[in-house]
Amino acid sequence: MDIIEFINQRHSTPPKHLVAPAPNVDELALMINAAESAPDHGSLKPWRFLVIDTEQRAALGELFVQALARKEPSTEPELLERERERALRPPMLIAAIASLTPNHPKTPDIEQFLTAAAAAEHVMLAANSLGFGTIWLTGSRVYDRYVMTGLGLQADEHLIGLINIGTVASNVSFKTPNRRIVSVEFWRG
Ligand SMILES: Cc1cc2nc3c(=O)[nH]c(=O)nc-3n(C[C@H](O)[C@H](O)[C@H](O)COP(=O)(O)O)c2cc1C
Predict the structure, then answer these.
(1) Per-residue pLDDT for 168 more than 90?
(2) Does the domain made of 11-168 have the CATH classification 3.40.109.10?
(3) Confidence class for position 176, pLDDT limits 50, 70, 90
(4) CA 152/CA 78 separation, integer angstroms
């Protein structure tokens, strides 16, 4: 497919439609390496991707549950179980991390965050080009320092997303995304 067409047709796949198989190790390596070409002011490589393998999912689910219970002690058990489920469901789960160099003379934190986001999008686009479905998810768990610490992040690291990846279930079909046709806007001074 032509690259412009590929970009225009990119879309997310809801986690409930992502099934096995997940990318294999070779495909995963291609995806993670696609991040290397993200635009990066100062070449700081301010990102890190942490794959949460299937055998670690129960521990991640427990971390999510503990984080929510600490923040909202009166959370209903049913909601806590739904929180646990988020860690268990995707065939592949990659934590996208902004790994900052604070007080950098040329590259403020915001630019480092933006680069990490661009890197995450590259990983997703690479997965899409290999035929997999993806979705970038966050929610309050992602911005919770308790979760970040549990994942082993350092103080200057920030979780920016939980990238869910898998094969798109065969019983779902996606309409071609209805993208806006926007007119080009020029600054007139
Ligand atoms: C930083 C970021 C965080 C997001 N967090 C969530 C989320 O927590 N829950 C959700 O349903 N969608 C979230 N989204 C949106 C989806 O990833 C997706 O982009 C959206 O559903 C639109 O679908 P599309 O990508 O097919 O256009 C997030 C997107 C970004 C860029």
Answers:
(1) yes
(2) yes
(3) confident
(4) 28
What pTM did the predictor assign?
0.96
57 Cβ closer than 6 Å to some ligand 1 atom: no
Determine the average pLDDT of the residues in 73-84: 97
Which of 33, 80, 28 lies closest to 53 in space, CA to CA?
Answer: 28
* Whether residue 12 has its Cβ less than 6 Å from ligand 1: yes
Q: How far is the CA of 163 from the centre of ligand 1 (A)?
A: 10
Averaged pLDDT for residues 10-19: 97
Q: Is 80 left (phi over 0), alpha (psi -120 to 50) or beta?
A: alpha
Check: CB of residue 48 under 8 Å from CB of residue 155.
no
* Protein residue closest via CA to atom 19 of ligand 1: 12
| Closest approach atom of ligand 1 to CA 136 | 17
Per-residue pLDDT at 45? 98
Domain residue extents for the chain:
11-168
Q: Is 146 in the pocket of ligand 1 (CB under 6 A)?
A: no
